Amino acid sequence: MNYLNDYIADYARVPSNEDLPNTQMLSDIFNTESVTENMVHVKLKFRQFTSALRRKKEISSTVLSESKLIRCLSTLDLTALGIGSTLGVGVYVLAGEVSKTTAGPAVIISFLIAAIASIFAGLCYAEFGARVPKAGSAYVYSYVCVGEFIAFIIGWNLLLEYIIGSASVVKGLSTYTDALIGKRMGTYLNDTIPMNVDYLADYPDVFAFFVTILFSTALAFGAKESSLFNNIFTLVNLCVVIFVIVAGVFKAHPSNWTLKKSTIPDGYGKGGFAPYGISGIVKGAAKCFYGFIGFDCVATAGEEAQSPQRSIPIAVVSSLLVVFLAYCGVSTVLTMMLPYYLQDTDAPLPHVFDSVGWTIPKYIVSVGAMAGLCSSLLGALYPLPRIIYAMSSDGLLFQFMGKIHPKFNTPLYGTLAAGVFTGILAALLDLDRLVSMMSIGTLLAYSMVASCVLILRYEEGKSDKKDEDSRDLTLINVFKQMFNTKLKNPTSLTARLVMIQVVAYVLWCIGFTSTIVFCEKQLQNRESWAIGMLVVFGILLCVTLMSIQTQPTSNVKLTFSVPLVPWLPGISILINIYLMLQLSPLTWIQFTIWIFIGLIIYFCYGIFNSNERYTNIASISSKNCLVNNEKSRKISYQDIKLNEANYVPKIAQFS
Questions:
Q1: What is the spatial distance between Cα 69 and Cα 606, in angstroms, rounded to a whole number?
Q2: What is the Cα–Cα distance from 336 to 238, expressed in whole angstroms?
Q3: Whole-number Cα distances in Å, 476 to 154, 472, 547
Q4: Which residues, including other chains, have CB under 8 Å from residue 469's CB and lie 6 or more apart?
Q5: Domain range list for the chain
C-alpha cells in the first residue's frame, strides 16, 4: 500500500486540493540542501511521537453498553462503597488530632471547609461519571478528554494513591487490633523477627499481610459478594458513629468551647472556640480534606453499576454528605465531652469514653473502629484492580493483569497482584514517611477532572448547531473572542480558546497559591511587592474565568451537570493546587521517583501496545485507500528522490 500520500499531505504540509504542487516542485522540496532526507525523517518521527502522546480514547454508545464486568451494583451499593472508603480515619483519628494541635473546637469549621472543597471535586467526578461510565475513574476521563500520555500519568498516580492508601489502612487495622490485645502480637514479632533497617518497620507485620490477601481474595470472588461485606461493615460503622453522637450528648459540656486563656496550658492556643485563630482553621481544613479522600472509588465502579449515569452522581454526593454529617457530629461531641487540649491524637474516641468512666461504650467504639477500618480497606482495595484492568485493557499496562476470570467475572490476576504488592508494603514499610504520597496523586487527579469538565463543557460537539465562524486561531482572533458577545454555539476557535484559557488558569493558580504559601511572612508584614503579586494573580484568575464564562457551551444533554461552571470547577482547581503545595519536599521527591518508573513503563511498553495505536493504523490504512482512488490526486512519485521503503515501515511505530 502506498503510504507516501499521507506523509506528503499530513507532514510536509502540501495542499490536498487543486493547488497540489507538481512533481518537479515536490522534487525541489526534498532535494534542497537545507532539507535533507534525515531531517525529513526526524521531522516525521517527531510528529508521529507527539501525535501518539495526544491520542484520545473514543468511547461510543456501543462500547459503553458492552462490558466483561457484571452490572450488579445498585445506587445503594455505590453509596455504601463511597461511605465505607471515606468514613474511617476522619472519625477515629483525624478529629482528635486536628482539634488538639491545629483548630481546637473550630475543627467543625475545618471539616465544613474541607467538605465544600470535596463536594466541588465530587460534583466534577459526578458529571464525568455520567459522561463516561467506564471502569478507571479519572484515568478514563482524562484519556477521553486530554490524551493518552496525561491519562497514563493520572492512572499511574491513582495506583500510587490506592496502593499506599490500602497499605496504611491495613497497617492501622493491625495496630488497632494489637492495641486491643495488649500489644502482644507486636511484642512477639519484634522479639522473634526484628528488622533493623532504616525506613522499614520494626518487624514484618505478618497480620497486615494476610489480612490484605484475605480482603483481596474476597474482592476477586466477585463485586457483588465483596459489596455485601462492605455494606455490612459500613452499616456497623454508621451505627457506632450514631451511638457515639447520641451517647456523647449526655456528657457534653458546652463550656469546653469557651475556655479562658488562663486555664489553657502553654502551647495550646488562646482558648475559646478557635484557640489557634483563622490560620489554624485553614490549616485544619487542609488536614481534614484528606479525611474525605476515597469517594472517587465510586466512579471506578461505573462498569459494574446497573445505571451508572444516574447512580454515580447520586452516590458521590450522598456519600460526601453522610460523611460530613458524621465528622461534624463526632467532632462536636468530642470537643464538648473533653477539652480540646486533652484529646488523644491516636485513638480519641476510646480515650474520651474512658475519661468519663464509660467502659462499655469504649469497647463498642473499638468494634466500630474495626468495622470502619475494614470498610475503608475494602474501599481502598476495590478501585485498585479496576484501574489496573482499565489500563491493561487499553494496552498501557501488561495485558495479563486485566484478564477477566470466566467464573468470577472479575480481574482476578490484577486483584491478587495488587493485593500481594499492597500486603508486602504494609508488612515491611513504615508508612509514616509515605502516607502523604497518597494525597498528591489524589489532588492531581481531582485537578485534572475539574479541568476536563471545563474543556468538555465548551467543546464543539457533533450534535451542536453550527455557527458560521471560519476564523483561525490567531492572536487577533483570540483577542476579539476573549469576551464573546455574538456566537451562541461552540466552534473550533472557541473550543481551542477555552483549552488555552484553562491551561493559563492553572498557571495563575500556581502563581497565586505559591505567593500565599512561600510569601506568608511577607504578606503578614504587608510588604507591597507580595501584596501586589497576590492582587495581580487574583485579577488574572477572575478575568480568565469571566472570559471562559462568556464562551458558548456545548448542547450535549447529560443526566447530571456541574452547576456554576466555570466558577465551581475553577475554585476546585485552586484549592487542590493550594493543598498540593502544602506537601513536603520529600513527598515531591518520592512522587518524582514514582513518576519516573511510570515513564519507563509507558515509553518502553505502553506507547507501542496501546489499543489506540492500532485504531490509528486502521484509520490511516483506510485513508490511503481513499486517497489512491481519487483521480484528481494522480501524482507520479518516481521523480521524488526519497526511498519510500525507508518510511513506510515506520508508519506504525508511534501512530
A1: 23
A2: 21
A3: 35, 10, 16
A4: 487, 491, 493, 494
A5: 4-55+610-654, 70-453, 473-553
Q: Give the pLDDT mean for 567-584.
A: 88
Alpha-carbon span 496 to 483, nearest angstrom? 14
Of 383, 375, 295, 372, residue with least CA distance to 117: 295
Q: Nearest Cα to 297, choosing from 320, 274, 272?
A: 320
* pLDDT score of 632: 37
In whole angstroms, give the CA distance from residue 297 to residue 137: 7
CA distance 395 to 248: 53
Phi/psi of residue 304, nearest 5 degrees: -110, 5
The whole-chain average pLDDT of the chain stands at: 76
In sequence order, the 6+-apart residues with CB closer than 8 A to the CB of 575 are: 117, 120
- The distance from CA 608 to its chain's CA centroid, rounded to whole angstroms, is 25
Helix axes 437-457, 148-180, angle to 10 degrees: 140
Cell representation of residue 83: 461511605
214-217 long-range CB contacts below 8 Å, 24 or more apart?
A: 215/170, 215/374, 215/377, 215/378, 215/381, 215/419, 216/381, 216/415, 216/416, 216/418, 216/419, 216/420, 216/422, 216/423, 217/416, 217/419
Mean pLDDT across 541-556: 90
What pLDDT is stored for residue 580 in this prediction? 83
Q: How far is CA 592 from CA 49, 504, 589, 595, 596, in A?
A: 23, 23, 5, 5, 6
CA dist 551 and 488 (Å) reads 8
- What whole-number distance in Å separates Cα of residue 138 and Cα of residue 153? 10
- The whole-number pLDDT of residue 9 equals 40
Q: Each residue of 225-275: pLDDT tens digit?
A: 566 776 777 788 788 888 888 988 888 888 999 888 888 888 888 888 889
Per-residue pLDDT reduced to its tens digit, 283-317: 888 778 777 877 777 766 666 677 776 777 788 88
Question: For residue 107, how far is the Cα from the chain centroid?
Answer: 26
Q: Among 3.30.470.30, 1.20.1740.10, 3.40.50.10330, 2.120.10.30, name the CATH number for the domain at 70-453.
A: 1.20.1740.10
- Our measurement of the distance from residue 152's CA atom to the centroid of its chain's CA atoms, rounded to an integer in Å, reads 12
Region for 267 from its dihedrals, namely left if φ exceeds 0, alpha if ψ lies in -120 to 50, beta otherwise: left
Q: What single-letter amino acid sits at 13?
A: R
| Least trusted range by pLDDT, from 24-33, 190-199, 420-429 | 24-33
| pLDDT tens-digit series, residues 84-139 | 777 776 777 778 888 888 888 999 998 888 888 888 888 887 777 666 655 546 78
Place of cell 467532632: 331
